[in-house]
Amino acid sequence: MASIRKRSTSSWEAQVRMRGWETQTRTFMTKADAVQWATGLEVEMRRGAYIDTSGLRSQTLAELLVRYAAEVTPGKKSAESEGYRLRAMMRLPMARLSLDRLTVAMVVEWQDTRKGEVSGDTVVRELNLLSSVINHARREWQLPMGNPVEAVGRPSQGRGRKRRPSWSELRKLLRALTPQAHRAEGYWAGARNPWIRPAVVFALRTAMRRGEILAMRWEHVHFRERHVHLPDTKNGTSRDVPLSRKAEQMLKRLPAMGDTGPVFPVTADALKKAFVRALVRAGIEDLRFHDFRHDATTRLAERLSNVLELSAVTGHKSLNMLHRYYNPKPEALALKLD
């Protein structure tokens, strides 16, 4: 049975009691809203279709994100980058809402705001992550909630990048990453980390991803066979990356060369921050570490005309992806036509 009573001059309390169900109570601003809620709830209980969502009112989206970051994210390959995105989401105004108040309209409003701040690709990744968090909570933590993100359309993703550094930009960048130059010119931030310059050079010579470079270990570097074994890559498979003579010599000159341990003992966050500072010092705009993979793939294609050999080096699984990373300059192709 439902009972409606006036609590104060501006609120009404509705309470529904029915055998087999926990008593449900909610407060409303008007008597009409209280009656409507109580009547609808009684109908759902009689039909056996009622789902108790009272637990959602005591938990915010931020708390859900915190739990996911602590229990699920650490087991993923992309744990570090996903952790950054989750922490950014925790600071959103929407994150302060209780889970029962999370609606499609609120997700759309957040998406529209983000589209004015970041690229479409980033918005899609964030929406997909939020959807994964909610689906995990429904499936593994038995939270009785819908997923409003699934009803939100995704923004169009940008075209694939074709940015490659020029020789002039590379000279400026490598100079900005040279510790001796820092001391001579008064730079101090990058001088504290001697691993950034070798990581950049190695990326340019191997077309390896940033995560693959940072995951390299000395026990997987085989100088006699001239290759680096990657037990686990982004594609979920292992692969062997052949080393050119210059790449091999560069590894042998690293100060921490040994039999075990990381080849580049630096975190992804430290590499990113030092790289961005170097770009500022060098006066270079719109360049990302991943652009080196485009540059290296394109230059390797000039030496390895067989696409099977090229894909074996770069690790691309399809011709379409290999084509995306092959970005020759028109003038270079024109010379080949002569």
Distance between the termini: 90 Å
- Spatial strand sequence of the major β-sheet: 1-2-3
What count of domains describes the coordinates?
3
Alpha carbon gyration radius: 28 Å
Structural features, described:
This protein is elongated. Residues 181-191 have low confidence and may be disordered. The protein is built from 16 helices and 6 strands. With 338 residues, it is mainly α. It has 3 domains: 2-50; 61-151; 167-337, Intergrase catalytic core (hpI Integrase, Chain A, Orthogonal Bundle). The protein starts with a strand and ends with a helix.
Lay out the secondary structure.
Elements: E1 2-8, E2 11-16, E3 24-28, H1 31-47, H2 54-57, H3 61-71, H4 79-90, H5 104-115, H6 120-140, H7 167-176, H8 179-185, H9 196-206, H10 210-215, E4 221-222, E5 227-230, E6 239-242, H11 245-252, H12 268-282, H13 291-303, H14 307-314, H15 319-325, H16 330-337
Antiparallel strand pairs: 1-2, 2-3, 4-5, 5-6
